[in-house]
């Protein structure tokens, strides 16, 4: 393309590939959480369970913002290039080592080691994004910052996509037994190869020109943390970035990409492979819009694109999620046939000498959807129910419903997921350029990383947890299923407050108006 | 617009402590039942721990708005 700065695509490529790999590393732990839990955090062990909760919660909520401070400070003192090389090494090595740890039954320290490695992953992620975004933005001409940095913005979605592809491919290549036994380690081990390639590419890159000239003039910050958060002039912009932009962006992002998945799996009971495939297609179709909205923000300003994304999310979330629920609600479907397909008795892995009784029933609906209902109860619980005179019986079977929707629903679901991710692209596409432009070069890495990771890690990361909790709170004796849309109250509320703050307090700065 | 920015500052100053009070109330509801597990204590502990400085940030943001710090932005 004409008038492009020399080497800009090399800069974008090197930064984006590394950031994509970091997201990939972070997501595979989440995507393989069930198997990791079984291998390293066995049920019935309270210490392991405690460490599992810490690994899940602390990595995203505490360590990510902490990583933003640690590496942000480093990036403003020693430079962007070496700092985001360091985060890449920490992330890659941690991920690789998770894949090498023996299971709990062979190594009793496994839960603690996994926790430490997971926390290191969170720390590295906290430092990576700000570095990559700053590095690209400082190479880009001012009037094209939105367009160039938007490539970094695609990495979070593509990282999720690649992690799903690698996991699904590994599952397809191996038998379920082999995957459960050792195959789950492959996506973790693969990371080291990707990281080595990315390190080699990044090593060849030069320091950001703006930071290099600042360093040459001896004008770099001595204490970026104090300058970023100790001075009112900058602190007020950090707070504005958090409450007027990243807080809403974070919840819109997590609702579109992660809560939608939780909702499809847990509330709609859609079969995991089907749900993940449809989400993958939706993500892939919507990903180019990160670049489109980044480019558009160079033309019309960042503010109103992000605000429109938040407002549309607040307005459309209920009908979109309700649409998903209605399509998968078996009470609205007509039964074509119903049959008991299996009754099995197996050893109870949790209680020695006990056995598990499993009854599987299949219901086929006239629209082609199939519901597999599994009732599981231990023999000891059945005996206790028989001894008891209480009604209903004290020990209820564990019921699991898995719905395989007819393929005719595919494009309706993909369409709804596409719209959700489109809102994500509106709020997320321009945000790197927006944050970079809010802060001066000497403290940019520190100042932009903290609001970004609080907005995404804390406000966004809590969306699935608060969503499930909100539905639980609406459950009553009259309505045992609760309000299935209650989980949307939190993201809608946060996005609405952020929209008000952003619309009133932010200015719609256009490039070239500095 | 500047008056709106200033008076909304009061709302933001109240929203910070209000959100924390709501979280603490929710946590006490969930954790006061005998069924509450160590996991739930950890989850709620982390959530309140991490949201407290964020709520303080919201109060400071409201205070700055009240002080008209956002009336004339450098980026305008």
Structure in a nutshell:
The complex is a heterodimer of chains A (514) and B (76). Chain A has 514 residues and is an alpha+beta fold.
Could you list some keywords that capture this structure?
heterodimer, A: 514 residues, alpha+beta, Growth Hormone, Chain: A, 2 domains, four-stranded antiparallel sheet, 20 helices, 69% helix, B: 76 residues, mainly alpha, elongated
- Strands of the widest sheet of chain A, in order across it, are 1-2-3-4
Q: What is the number of independent domains of chain B?
A: 1
What is the chain-wise order of helices and strands of chain A? HHHHHHHHHHHHHHEEEHEHHHHH
The biggest beta sheet of chain A is recorded as: 4 strands, antiparallel
**Which value, in Å, is the CA radius of gyration of chain A?**
24 Å
Shape of chain A: globular
End-to-end CA span of chain B: 14 Å
Classify the secondary structure makeup of chain A into a structural class.
Answer: alpha+beta
The CATH topology annotation of the largest domain in chain A reads as: Growth Hormone, Chain: A
Q: Number of helical runs of chain A?
A: 20
- Briefly, what CATH class of the largest domain in chain A? Mainly Alpha
> Averaging pLDDT over every residue of chain B, what do you get?
88
CATH homology-level superfamily of the largest domain in chain A: MFS general substrate transporter like domains
What gap, in angstroms, lies between the N and C termini of chain A?
A: 26 Å
The unreliable regions of chain A are: none
Quickly give the CATH architecture of the largest domain in chain A: Up-down Bundle
* Unreliable runs of chain B: none
| Interface with most residues | A-B, 30 and 27 residues
Biggest sheet details of chain B: none
Structure description:
Chain A folds into two domains: about 10-330 and about 410-505, Growth Hormone, Chain: A (Up-down Bundle), CATH 1.20.1250.20; about 335-370 and about 370-405. Chain A is built from 20 helices and four strands. Chain A has helices at about 10-30, 35-40, 45-75, 80-100, 110-140, 145-175, 175-180, 185-205, 210-215, 225-230, 230-265, 270-285, 290-300, 305-330, 380-385, 410-430, 430-440, 445-460, 465-475, 490-505; strands spanning about 335-345, 355-365, 370-380, 400-405. In chain A, strands 1-2-3-4 form a four-stranded antiparallel β-sheet. Chain A is globular, with a radius of gyration of 24 Å. Chain B has about 80 residues and is mainly alpha-helical. Chain B has one domain (about 1-65). Chain B is about 80% helix and about 0% strand. The longest helix of chain B is centred in the N-terminal third of the chain and has 30 residues, at about 1-30. Chain B is elongated, with a radius of gyration of 17 Å. The chains are: A alpha+beta (about 525), B mainly alpha (about 80). The interface between A and B is medium-sized, with 30 and 27 residues.
């Amino acid at each position: 393309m004409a008038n492009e700065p020399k080497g800009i695509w090399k800069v974008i490529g090197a930064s984006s590939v590394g950031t994509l790999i970091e997201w990939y590393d972070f997501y595979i732990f989440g995507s393989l959480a069930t198997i990791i839990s079984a291998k390293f955090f066995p049920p019935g062990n309270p210490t392991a369970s405690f460490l599992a909760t810490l690994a899940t919660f602390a990595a995203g909520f505490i360590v990510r913002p902490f990583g933003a401070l640690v590496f942000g400070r480093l990036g403003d003192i020693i430079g962007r290039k070496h700092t985001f090389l360091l985060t890449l090494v920490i992330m890659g090595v941690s991920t690789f080592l998770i894949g090498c740890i023996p299971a709990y039954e062979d190594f009793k320290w496994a839960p603690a080691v996994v926790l430490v490695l997971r926390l290191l992953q969170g720390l590295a992620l906290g430092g990576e994004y700000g570095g990559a975004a700053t590095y690209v933005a400082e190479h880009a001409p001012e009037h094209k910052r939105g367009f160039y940095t938007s490539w970094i913005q695609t990495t979070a979605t593509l990282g999720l996509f690649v992690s799903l592809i690698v996991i699904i491919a590994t599952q397809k290549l191996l038998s379920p037994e082999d995957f459960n036994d050792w195959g789950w380690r492959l996506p973790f081990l693969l990371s080291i190869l990707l990281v080595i390639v990315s390190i080699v590419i990044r090593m060849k890159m030069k320091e950001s020109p703006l930071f290099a000239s600042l360093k040459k003039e001896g004008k770099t910050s001595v204490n970026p943390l104090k300058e970023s958060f100790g001075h009112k002039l900058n602190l007020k912009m950090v707070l504005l970035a958090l409450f007027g932009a990243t807080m809403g962006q974070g919840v819109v992002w997590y609702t579109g990409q992660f809560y939608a998945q939780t909702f499809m799996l847990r509330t709609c009971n859609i079969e995991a492979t089907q749900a993940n495939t449809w989400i993958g297609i939706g993500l892939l179709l919507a990903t180019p819009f990160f670049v489109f909205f980044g480019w558009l923000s160079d033309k019309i300003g960042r503010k109103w694109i992000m605000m429109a994304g938040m407002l549309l999310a607040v307005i459309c979330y209920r009908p979109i999620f309700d649409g998903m629920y209605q399509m998968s609600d078996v009470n609205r479907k007509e039964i074509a046939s119903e049959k008991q397909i299996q009754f099995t008795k197996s050893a109870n892995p949790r209680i020695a000498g006990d056995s598990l009784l499993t009854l599987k029933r299949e219901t086929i609906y006239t629209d082609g959807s199939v519901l597999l209902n599994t009732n599981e109860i231990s023999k000891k619980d059945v005996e206790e129910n028989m001894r008891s005179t209480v009604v209903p019986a004290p020990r209820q079977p564990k019921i699991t419903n898995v719905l395989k929707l007819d393929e005719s629903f595919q494009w309706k679901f993909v369409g709804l997921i596409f719209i959700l991710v489109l809102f994500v692209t509106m709020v997320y596409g321009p945000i790197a350029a927006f944050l970079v432009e809010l802060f001066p070069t000497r403290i940019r890495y520190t100042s932009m990383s903290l609001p970004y990771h609080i907005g995404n890690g804390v406000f966004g990361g809590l969306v699935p947890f608060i969503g499930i909790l909100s539905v639980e709170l609406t459950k009553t004796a009259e309505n045992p299923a609760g309000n299935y849309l209650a989980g949307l109250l939190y993201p809608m509320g946060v996005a609405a407050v952020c929209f008000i703050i952003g619309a009133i307090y932010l200015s719609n700065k256009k490039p070239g108006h500095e | 617009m500047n008056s709106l920015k200033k008076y909304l500052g009061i709302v933001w100053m109240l929203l910070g402590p209000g959100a924390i009070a709501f979280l603490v109330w929710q946590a006490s509801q969930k954790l006061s039942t005998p069924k509450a597990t160590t996991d739930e204590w950890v989850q709620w502990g982390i959530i309140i721990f991490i949201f407290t400085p964020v709520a303080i940030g919201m109060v400071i943001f409201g205070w700055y708005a009240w002080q008209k710090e956002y009336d004339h932005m450098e980026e305008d």
